[in-house]
Amino acid sequence: MIDAWLPDAFLNPHGYPSHEWVQPFSEYTGWVQSRQGANTGRAWWIPRGWFTSMGYLRDETHPYSKVVAFAIQDKIVEAERSVPGLLPLEARMNSRYERFGQRWQPKDMFQPIVNGIRIYMSLKGSGAGGRGGAGAAGGDAGAGAGTPGSGGVSGLSADITWDAAYTEAPDETAHGDYMKLMASAGLAFDYVHLKYLAEGDLRVTRTERDAAGGVQWRVERARPILPVGTKPLPVAGTGEGQ
Fold first, then answer.
1. Segments making up each domain of the chain, as ranges
2. What does pTM read for this prediction?
């Protein structure tokens, strides 16, 4: 499906189950035995509210990756802060996570809070590579090749699918008003990406030339779509924007 659609964006929404929050007392050992081991697995033992993971590539062949990632991050924070009831939930769960988790195991249970919203993203970005997927949500696999932030989904190329992100919502047993809150947070996240795709600066090149007694028209759109007002970098040897 990815090869057929060649999407600019790939969103991977998740919910993390409440039965993992009490695994020290319930004898649930899924994260410890089958994932990354005891230390990083403990990052999931205490709820940490609604959160997302993002990433960017720091290599020379993806010069816009960082600016795009941070532009989308700012819009996510703005949107999630506007969801009624979400900030109090985040504050309660982040405080609990610090008290019972980070205080005792700061290496694995850390707090990447951006203006009240938890967003995991490597400060130095990720190295370049082929297809693959990576996320870094404190206990997930580290960043790697392909499009960072996809939550471990393989088959994505950062040259094509440059916007990849996934979310985690504490929603396994959600119902009633709490379900509405979780759904509102997810919808706000999705809308940020849709709005960015619709309103970002496109880099479209149109060319025409004589061909076999006719005219050949060609339209090319460079990826990624840039934040509004971003000046394209010059193409080597031409002085024109790429």
1. 8-19+46-135+150-234
2. 0.83
